[in-house]
Structures are given as C-alpha cells and as structure tokens.
Amino acid sequence: MLFNSLNYLLFFPLVFACFWLAPKKVRPFLLLVASYVFYMSWMPIYGLLLFFLTLANYFVGIAINKFQSKAKPMLILGLVINLGTLCFFKYTNFLLQSLASVLTQAAAFLNINGINFAWLTTMAGDVSRDAVAINIILPLGISFFAFEFIHYIVDIYRGDKPISNPIHFGLFAAFFPSQIAGPIKRYQDFIHQLHQELEQNRSFSQEKFKAGMTLAMQGLFKKVALSDNLSPLVARGFDGVQTSLIAGGAGVGTLDAWIAVFAFALQIYFDFSGYTDMGRGSALMLGFSLPDNFNLPYIASSASDFWKRWHISLSSWLRDYLYIPLGGGRVSRWHKHFNLMVTMLLGGLWHGAAWHFVAWGGFHGAGLVVNHEYGAIADKSNLLKQFHASALGRICSVLFTLAFVLVGWVLFRAQTMSQALAVLSLLFQSQPSQAVVSMLAQSTLPYAIGVYAIYAILFANTSAYKPRPVVALRQALDVLPARVAIWACVFICAVGFSPSHAEPFIYFQF
Amino acid sequence: MPRWQTIAIALVTLVLSLAFLEFLFAVAGIGENEYLKIDPAIGFSPIPGKQVTWREEGFCRTVWNTQAMRDKERTLAKPARTYRIAVLGDSFVEGLQVSDDQTFCHLLEEKLNQSGVAPSNATRFEVLNFGVANYNLGQEYLRLKQKALAFNPDLVVMAVRPDTIYQLALNPQGGFMYASRPSFFAGANHTLIEDHTMSENWMKSSEAKRMKSTLWLREHSRIWGVVSQMARNLMLWQKHNLEKPKLNFSTPAFSLTKETDTVKVTQAKAQEQLAAAQACAKSTQFLWPIADAVIRQADQECKAHKVPLVLLRLPGPGGFRNIAEDKLLQGTVKTLNLPLCDLTEPFIAAQEKTGQRFFIVFHLDPDGHKLAAENIFQFLNANVFPSQGTEAHN
What we know:
Distance between the termini of chain A: 16 Å
Distance between the termini of chain B: 79 Å
Shape of chain A: globular
Number of helices of chain B: 13
Structural class of chain A: mainly alpha
Helix content of chain A: over 70%
Strand content of chain A: under 5%
CATH architecture of the largest domain in chain B: 3-Layer(aba) Sandwich
Number of domains of chain B: 2
Largest sheet of chain B: 5 strands, parallel
Shape of chain B: globular
Oligomer: heterodimer
CATH topology of the largest domain in chain B: Rossmann fold
Strand order of the largest sheet of chain B: 7-5-8-12-13
Helix content of chain B: 40-55%
Radius of gyration of chain A: 25 Å
Number of strands of chain A: 1
Structural class of chain B: alpha/beta
Largest sheet of chain A: none
Number of helices of chain A: 21
Largest interface: A-B, 37 and 44 residues
CATH superfamily of the largest domain in chain B: SGNH hydrolase
CATH class of the largest domain in chain B: Alpha Beta
C-alpha cells in the first residue's frame, strides 16, 4: 500500500480511530494486525516471509541472550538467515548475470587461442536475453527490515536485552509507517516508546496529531506535487541520452542534461524525504516518534557532512554495524580508508543489485577518503582554516559538495555505466537544448516549488528562517480549526499539482 | 483563546487559503480540464470562453471562443470575400495536445492564405475548427446542423476516423460523455433515426443533476476542477478495487522461467490480435449502416444549404487502421459521389520515409498536424477548388 494512494487515505483514518478507541493493552496487537494488512495488500504471500523472518529473529535474539556460551554461533545463524534472505531476493540475478557475463567473455577469450570452450557459453546462457535470470519479485522493504533485524541481534549479542513480548517484537519488525522504506529504527527507542504507551496512561495528544498531520501533508506534497512532476524531466533527459547512445543523433542538449541532473537530485530528495515525512507523520499521529532521515542534505559542506544529513538512519546503521566492526577510524590511516571504501561500496550495493550502484558507493567512498585527507591537511594550515571559516569558504564548500553529490546522482540514476558517462560528458559540451527545457516550461513545477517554500517556512521544523511575522503567523495558525483548513488546502493543492500518472517511490525498489 | 476567535481565525484562514489556491491554479493552469457541459440536443458541448490548460499527451493553454469553438473569435456573419471552411470532428480536429497555432485547422488556414489562390471571388480563407473531443459521427452531424451551418461556410469538411464508428453504439455505462449523447439508428432507405430516450433518461440521473447544479463552479472555479478530478479518481478506485480479488495467495513470488520469453506468449498475442481484427471487422459491418445514414443525412443538410461536403479520413489513434471500414467508406463515398480526402496512405508513406511516428500516444503530434494540413491543402487544391472557379487574388 502506498502512502499516496486512496487505499491509505481510507486505511489510516480507520487504524487511527481504532487505535485511540481501543483499550491500551490491545493497541500493539491492533497495530501489528494493521501492519500486516498494510504489507500484504501488495503481495499477500510475502506476509509469510516477514512473519517467518520475525519469528526466526525473535528466537535467535532470545537464544543469544539465554545461551551466552553459544552466543556467537547464534549470531552467525541470525546473520546468515537475514543476509541469506536478502541476498537471495535481491542479488541472485545480479550474481547469475555477472557470472554469465564473465563466463561468456572467458569463453570468447579462450576461443581465440584455438581451444573450444563452448561448454562455458552453454553454462553462461544467452546473456543478452536475460536467459540466466530467475523471475524473482523483490519483497517490498526487505533491505530495511533485514537491517533492522541485524541491528537487533547484534545489539543483543553486544549485551542489550531482547524483546520478550512477541507481539512487541512483531510490531517493531512490521510497524507500517516505517515498514517499506524506513527510517531504519533502533529497537531500544521503539520499545521504550511502546512501554511508555502501555505503562503511562497516555491519551491522544492534539499537539502530536497537529505535528504529525503537518508532516504527513508536507510529505504528500513533496511526493505527488514535486517528485512526481520532476520524474518526467529526469526520464526525458536520461532516456534521451540513452536513445542518442543507441540510435545516434541529438536526443537532448547540454542544458537539458543539466536540468535533468538537478531535477534528479531534487526528485530523489523529495521522493524519499516525502515518504519519510508521511511515515513519520503517520507514526506521530499514533503517538510514536520515528528517527529523522534528512537534514537539508544539499547544504552539506563536505562529503562526510552530506552523509550526516542524507538518509541518516542508513548512514548511522552502516557506521555502527559495518564501519566500526571493521575497525572504524581507530586503525591506521590506510586501513581506515579501506574501511570507508568497503562500507560505502556495500552501502551502494545495498541500494540495488547493479554495478552503477556499486560505482556510486565507490564514488562516495573515494569522496570520504579525499575529504578525510584534505581535512588533515586543512587542520595544519592556518590559511585553509581561515578560508573555510569565512563566508566565501563556506559557500565554496557547499557548492563543491553539491557538484560532487550531483555527479554521484548521475551514477545512481543512469541505467548503465555508458549512459552515466554520456550524461556526464554532455554536461560539458555545448549541444543545443530543447527537449527538457520545453517540458520544464510547460510544467507546474515552479509553482509547486513556490508553494512548498511557503509551507516549509511556515510549518517545517527544520526551517531556519523565522522572522517575527512568520513566528506570529505560525502562532495564529496553531489552533486546530485553522490547521484543518490549511491541511485541506494543501491536500487539494497536492492533488491539483499531481501529474496524471503517479510514480512509485524510488526507494521502494531497494 | 475565546471560541469565536478560534472560529474566526479558521474561517479567515480557509477563505484566504481558497482565494490563494484559486489564484495559484489560474496562474499555473491547474483544474482546467473540465471544459464540457451538458447540451440536451447534442449530449455535451464546450463551455464558451472557458480557459483550458491541457497536459495529457501534449500541452496547450487555450481559451474556447465565445461560440464554443477551439478557435480564435469568429463573427457569425461571414466577412466579405472570405471563403469559409468548417471542419467537424473529434479530439483529432480539436487538437488539445498541441498549441493553438499548431492545429491542422490553423495551419491549413495559414497555408491557404499564403497560397494566393482562392475559389469564387474570395481573397482570404477562414478554416473554422468545430472539433470536440469524444464526439461521434452522429454528434458531428448535429454540430453541423446546430452550429457550423450558421456560420455560412463555403465548404464543410467532416472527419470520419476509424474508431469513431464504435461510439455510435449505445454505451450508457460510460458516464457523462457516453450516456448523455443521443443514440443513432439506421432506418429504412438509409434514413437516420435520432433517439434521445437513453440520454433523456440519463438527464434524470444524479450525475446529470450534479453537473447541472454545479455548472457555475465548473465554469469558474479551478479548485472545483481539482475536486471533481479527485471524485472521478475515487470512483475509478472503487471500480478497480471492487473488481480485484482482495487476498490472492496464488501469485507466484518467483519462478524459474520468464513468461515474456516463451513462444506461447508470442503465439497468444498474435491470436489475440487476430481475434481483435476479426471482431473489429464484424462490428464494423454491423454498425456501418448507421455511419452511412449519418453521412447521407449530413450530405443532404449541406446540399440544402448549397455547401459542398468533403469527407476527411484521419488516421486512427496511434495509427490504428480499420480496413473493413475503409472499404465500406469507399462504398458510401462512391454512391453519394462525395470527395474523400484520405490521409491513411500519406501518413503511412511519411512514417516509412522519415521514421517518425506523427503521434504522441494516441493523438497527432505537431508534425502530424503539419502533415495533415499539407495533405488537406493539396487535396482541396486538386479536387475541390477547381470545380468552384479558382482564381489568383494577389
């Protein structure tokens, strides 16, 4: 079920009403049932996958805690279950196709030397027709809940207490606001909130409802009015380059390519942060706080700052469960760089089973290494220190980081490495542009961005711009009836700006 | 805060927000898709003066003129020494997928005026666009009677597209644009029977009542346009979800073969296409007497007004071709001795020559309109104008 679908528009109010009307002891069970309904509305059979993974991790957690002497094998068993499931569903075809490609090339190479290695080609199959691929449908959210399970069993192994109540554990695993695309929760925080809910006689909070609904509306607008309208621009730009690569001729021009690249940077931000806002907003209306995933990422002043602002729950997971176990920063300089590269390459691969995602991870890994090296040099130079402390230095850092991130997004969005390189080279040519430029001129995007800016200034918590009239207006609009009027208008506005064909959330494919 | 103050703030917020939204939507061109109103005689017709921003397939920002035509303002009385061509048709003629100056009607007028040759004593041309989306052939005939002939045209061009024939059949389930229009039947001796029973029945429905009572909002409010779009989406959602089984555990999560790769799928697709073509030919045979009667009636109407009628065969959506109908149309044209400007072959030839599609998805793209205008221009100069006494006017 999508947050921006009519199904959810009916589902959530029903869950919301039942949740707050039900006796508090029943609430976790009710949310668990709702979460499974939410998940199974897409492909019911995968509800069983989620159920069995939950069951397995629940018992592994208990076992690690109970049998301290066998904790390590238990942990390994848990990791094998989670990573094995993730790898089967996500990486089988990638591995098969990569293997087939290598075998085909090997066979071709060996034939040159006059030896017939036809059996290799037979083994590899016909790569061009995807004959080696198995038709696997990726279960929604598997990358997210697999990482939550790993965090859970690793933390138990490190000494934390497991969740004894299976309903609570099931709810942690399946909680619908964060089920499909995160944020990746930490169980300690979630269970603490759940216990608070049960132990304290917590009743419906109007403040939380207002904050939650404001966030959810912001997310809806980001998704349907901004991200979905950016999508055709991005597709036109990148597909145009692809068409030019295959058929030749000028598909898109330089300005088209620039617009497409910037549009993708905005699309992926609005899409993912929109989803997160809707999830966090829904959770908040039910009384739960989910971790934030974004903090104005495009004003980051370095690659490492970017990862503190972009997909925060993933980057902190990678730090805690991959980078630090590898040795983190407390090792030799080159070992630390190696750790960073491994972490980012795997982070790239987590996003999707394709080489361009690995390249994107590697690119960011290299960026972080350079960033650390440069930081060490800058620390020793007073001139560089002064420059970075100045306004000009800060602006340069932000612009340089943005350029770096944009190049990374090209690798991320392109379907193949050749397409990515073609887009990047087009950015620095002077081909006449029309395709994407004319689409932008006909689009409602500039108006939607204007509306979003007004809404964000008035209501977003991250908004740093708070002059006195804005604060006064915020206070005046804080009464519930006024908020209801604004939410209604934002809803109409989001629907009005939404294109006729809705796009799926980008991060659903991960 | 006192209760009255809370209510006052809420009301002021609501009014200001709605005013802001109306303004924003007007500037951005949002909520302007509803440009048709109920017309008891013809089913539906465009709202005069309605501004439309169209973003499906292509893009245009246009204003329907005060005579409810997708055209610039035209006087009812024909200006002196002007040769008027009235073009009737559906969305292909209306051309909301392209801008005003890219429709083939506009391009044809431009081309004719540049050519310096005009029939009779005319010195300039006017090509009037009477196209309305979703009109069937019968509605085209009604629009000819109701609207086009009042403009005193010198020539009537009536579009007959390969898929419009199916729309002559009754379709009371399709909502406003299907159930509101009159039904047409073929009587004895190729007479046309126009029946309003179904449409009159629909006019009593809650949908019709709602449309009538909200006409002012439909004409003036863009927020209303968005809200009614939401309502339509909700209805579609209901339909989709009621038809779809809720919990289906039989969906395979993964299998070892790709269905799309199998020979069986290709064979099944070919069989499907063959069955569709056969069904298409059968229903065309069944419905053609109605189309034939409409064309005969239109011809008689034009003759009564001493205006020649030309039939225009535009290509089908996305290039769809109904060969059975092509043959039947040829028969009617031959019997009635009517000129037929058939664009099917020129489009196929141009597609083969240039590799261009000339369609966005279903409708013509700007190059498709250009190609249509070019071919109609040549056809008129070769087959219509010479019989009307063509002379150079420059």
